[in-house]
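REQUEST ID: PR-0412
SUBMITTED BY: lab tech R.K.
PRIORITY: routine
TASK: structure prediction, single protein chain
INPUT:
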Amino acid sequence: MVAGSVRRVFDDLTGAAMMVAAALVVAAPAAAQSPQTPQDPPAADRTPEAFAIHAQSTAIVQGLPAFRARYTGQNSLYPNGLARQSTSITGFFSVRLPWEGGELHVNPEFFQGFGIGNTLGIAGFVNGDAQKAGSNAGVFYLARGYIRQTFALGADREWQEGAANQLAGFIPTQRVTISVGRFAGVDFFQTSAYAGDSRRQFMNWSIWGPTSSDLAANIRGYVEGAVVEVTPFAGTTFRYGALLMPTQPNGSNLALKLNNISHVFEIAHQHNWFGRPGAIKPYFFYTNGTMGRFNQALSLAATGLDPDDAIATTRRFGNVKWGFGLLVDQELTDHIGVFARMGWNDGKTESYAFTQVDRAFAAGISVKGDLWRMPGHTFGLAVVQNNLSGAHSRFLAAGGTGIILGDGALNYGSERIIETYYDLPVYKDNVFLAANYQFISNPGYNRDRGPAHVFGMRLHARY
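STATUS: complete
OUTPUT:
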């Protein structure tokens, strides 16, 4: 009876979210900052930074009560109940280089812990900080290390506030920016004001990221490549990324080959809609890599070969995955903002770097605590629906496994998720505590498993 009520609520929320998203797509979005000309004297508090140091630490604890499961496979979400924690600590070091427009950004990082079920069993995974390479003792590594070069296309300047990997200063309103090195794809593509920071906002992968794009990354979520951004006028940026793919599923080796590159194109447009800022960001990707092909693997498996062995024989450089998507952000009032994400890929080849989603939709709302006289507090609510292509679902049903899923069998159904969180400040603008709840229907697209309920707490500190 409770499950039926929850499902009816989910369906109502999904319907409402789809109507909001449709209205937003028709309406277009987000205000650009007013340009600052070279003649305008900088205010006393507008001193460009020559260098900057920032840091963050995030600790997440999540618990999963036991749930119904008719069977459990190699990559299934463990059904008997468990709790897991993860901790990340990141340093953000930025410095201006000794020539006009040059910057260097270096981010050493420490990670310890695991996601629920070792980050397996849910396509829309529940911990945005969780890595597929968990560790009890913890490990240090270089998360980001890249050079950014900005070229002016005009004389006008605008002020840019300082932040992690962003030096405060005046930047050209019309510009070309090139970033080369190691970074995360979501640092540049499909960024959202309301669903883009898993350390302060929604934690589910399908909410803060473009999951259906299988965005290139190593096992820790970072990638090597280049991003070119062209801003011909304030409020609109054309963005292209050439990102190296791993040579094995969830692999750390990112081979520099012309037939092992994910090409990502995005148009980010910001303007006002009825006096309220918003953004609309369509994107397209075309990926070459060694991803195995489902239909070829299924044909081989029909002869008696194990599905995982069969798909391994189809992996070769130059295999293709392509798709597209859209992100919409929109402020509705001073204290309420909404967003919607959608994505689609051809579903013919394996998911290799992010997670196993071929068709994605997510929408939600973010509400500031000023509305109930609690400045600094934030409430968020979002819904998700993930789906697989026919070939992908048949491969899992035949007993195949992927980078995050594989129950040994599959009674296919859409993976549906509700996430809600409440984030509040503990100390000034530096320490925050959040409570989080996620409801997952058909985890791993399997009607024979779930629903699952995940309860979490998050402590985030920043400098």
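NOTES: The helical segments are 2-27, 205-208, 294-301, 307-312, 390-397.
REVIEWED BY: pending
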